[in-house]
């Protein structure tokens, strides 16, 4: 009887893990192909895309919370000043990250954008070391050193400091830091963040109507449809990711995060036909080596811990 129960629990755990893995892959696939949507909306301009993304994300996530009767989470977050303060910081960082990335896609710099999300894990490590007092072992420090060398090589390859990559990595890294301290669920957290940003978004969209003497890009059904899709395109991967991390080991979830920037790298080179020289390619090679070292060390350390 006991063995049957154990077997049933194992089967259930395996099913949860497989469902989590599928959801995690789905989230990072959607994030990886997101540049295609922004590229199709290039004529709208980065500010308009981010403003619409904010509004439609608020509406889409609000509908999910309403159906799930979860607005109590939002009220709790808004009523607790330390949480709200963290959410204000995270919303500003999120808006900056969105704007930088959409602008990078709009200006044909998806390659550098993908590099930014490749170095993001190392930025997270640096934030943990400086702000949270986390200690790293020898191999983790080696991985960080290799990542720093990769950034330097990237600067040589493009002839300037890779400010897009660094800005994306830093804003998203600190966004994660403030979201972690906010202690609010991902869906309700995104609603609060977009709620904070929506007055500015509506103000800018109102300005575009005045500037263009009409609806402008919003008057085109095709463009309007794509702008509306920025809402679910933002929220659905986040919901899938939240589902996945509840069912996966952190090491597995950590490995999946490289799917998104890898797809973006492929899109930049093979779809958008962005130029890449040997030095840039070597810098990507170094950052991949850095991530391999860090991930392998994480896996080995986890296996070494007794069950």
Explain the overall architecture.
By secondary structure, the protein is mostly helical. It has one domain (14-304). It is built from 12 helices and no strands. The chain has helices at residues 2-40, 46-67, 71-79, 81-106, 110-131, 138-158, 163-182, 186-212, 221-245, 250-256, 259-271, 278-304. It is globular and about 60 Å long. The relative contact order is 0.19. The model has no long low-confidence stretch (mean pLDDT 87).
List the secondary-structure elements in sequence, H or E. Answer: HHHHHHHHHHHH
Q: Which outline best applies?
A: globular
Low-pLDDT stretches: none
Strand content: under 5%
Please compute the radius of gyration using only Cα atoms. Answer: 21 Å
Reported for the largest beta sheet, the result is:
none
Number of helices: 12
Strands, total number: 0
The average pLDDT is 87
Assign a percent range to the helix content. over 70%
* First-residue to last-residue Cα separation: 24 Å
Features:
mainly alpha, globular, 307 residues
Topology diagram in text:
Elements: H1 2-40, H2 46-67, H3 71-79, H4 81-106, H5 110-131, H6 138-158, H7 163-182, H8 186-212, H9 221-245, H10 250-256, H11 259-271, H12 278-304
Helix pairs in contact: 1-9, 1-11, 2-4, 2-8, 2-9, 3-8, 4-7, 4-8, 5-6, 5-7, 5-11, 5-12, 6-12
Brief overview, please?
By secondary structure, this protein is mainly α. The protein contains 12 helices and no strands. It has one domain (14-304).
